[in-house]
Specification:
There is one protein chain. With 485 residues, the protein is an alpha+beta fold. It has three domains: 12-90, Phosphorylase Kinase, domain 1 (2-Layer Sandwich); 97-268, Transferase(Phosphotransferase) domain 1 (Transferase(Phosphotransferase), domain 1, Orthogonal Bundle); 278-484, Methane Monooxygenase Hydroxylase, Chain G, domain 1 (Up-down Bundle). The protein is built from 13 helices and 14 strands. The protein has helices spanning 51-66, 97-104, 109-128, 180-184, 192-206, 216-224, 239-248, 259-263, 278-294, 298-318, 322-355, 360-365, 421-429; strands spanning 12-20, 24-31, 34-45, 75-80, 84-90, 131-132, 141-143, 151-153, 160-161, 368-369, 375-376, 409-416, 452-456, 477-484. The strands form five sheets. The chain has a five-stranded antiparallel beta sheet, covered by helices on one side. A three-stranded antiparallel beta sheet has the order 12-14-13, with no helix packed on it. Strands 6-9 form a two-stranded antiparallel ribbon. Helix 5 (192-206) packs across helix 7 and helix 10 packs antiparallel against helix 11 (322-355). The protein starts with 11 loop residues before the first strand and ends with a strand. This is Serine/threonine-protein kinase ULK3. Keywords: ATP-binding, Autophagy, Cytoplasm, Kinase, Nucleotide-binding, Repeat, Serine/threonine-protein kinase, Transferase. Residues 12-268 form the Protein kinase domain. It comes from Varanus komodoensis.
Length: 485
Amino acid sequence: MAGWAPPQLEDFILTERLGSGTYATVFKAYRKKNAREVVAIKCVSKKNLNKASVENLLTEIEILKTVRHPHIVELKDFQWDKEYIYLIMEFCAGGDLSRFIHARRILPEKVARIFLQQLACALKFLHDKNISHLDLKPQNILLSSLDKPHLKLADFGFAQHMSPRDEKHVLRGSPLYMAPEMVCSRQYDARVDLWSVGVILYETLFGQPPFASKSFLELEEKIRSNQPIELPSRPRLSLECRDLLQGLLKRDPKQRLSFQAFFTHPFVDMEHMPSARSLDKATSLVSEAVKKDQEGEAAAALSLYSSALEYFVPALQYETEAHRKEALRSKVNEYVSRAEQLKALVASSNRALLEQGCPAREILKGRLPEPGGGAREAPLLCRPQPPHASAGANSERALPKWCPAGARWATTPIILSQGGWKGCFSLWLERGWPAGDAAPQPRYPSSGRAACSAVYTVIEGPPNSGVSAVSFPDKLSIFWFDLIF
């Protein structure tokens, strides 16, 4: 419109328009007393507000005033005059996630996972406060910058304080990202946010949401359909990623993944997401590893080095300063090299024990014979792990007839070099297993085999276990075995 000018605000200079909606326009602005302070100002026209939009605006201000989180856009202040209400907010130079996706058509799974972890971190924070966003979509997810983007959840106009048992009946959100129950039954709860997360992840990986349509009638038909959401075969996704998508995109909210299952899902893996805490955790673990290494406990040191490396990798991803990043990468390479040396040492020690006649079952039990006839505690690497979701039925699984009295199932991690799993497998199992038991192939479950029911690489991990580790190409892998001992 010719001659149109942005609103005037006493302490700020409003410049370019960043976006606009039914009730508000967002501008980039500078503080007059400090031109280096760049903000985004949401200008809400009072004359366009109805009762519902006033309530939404008040809710947005109330929520943003009380939350401070690295992945939620910050409300710095709010003001008003006769014509406008102004929300002065953190400026995000990277635009929104929708533009980011469309500029690249699709995102690699690795990038999509990092964004998902950041979104999950924000949702976990909100979920703990019983806050539901109710309008999750790529347009409401901002990026701090384009070169090193950090996700920022924004636009809380439809957000509500909702406990897990609360139900709502008012239609909110954007149809492409709305859970089916919001349209079909108009009765919904906080789980609608999980559906929206699934749609957003789907769009990042495949370039468009699952209900992409040419008309509203076509969209409504897809939403009301009972057909399950099918995932395209290309691009190929990891098993964990596909499992998460299928769990989130369940039309029936009762069958949909729960919040707890989402936060602990192996693909989300919030424990190992890049964050300010990653380096602290890695440093703590590597200090323990060095101590065990100096004390001559090779297997325990190897396990601790491996655990530390699981945090060093996200710490590298989180670090933005080039000099510090290069120094950290150099230290990580040192730890990887030392872990390789310890791996070879542990393998040779176990080989020597087997050659001396120590049964493989005793090694797997973690009770290694001492020269004096006693036993010492097993290193962490060899100890059976606590039961997890994929092995929850182990205790109920029937044992083969040849098993000795007192034998039982357990899931045990074994660390070895990439491509070297067969040698390690035969080393551990060449004594104690009956002849003819075929070794399973890595990364694929092998049902029907009594001695070893499944092997998983570190990239996949035990399905639905929440257990995660990191792989270093041509360096280390962790293989998970369901073993009888």
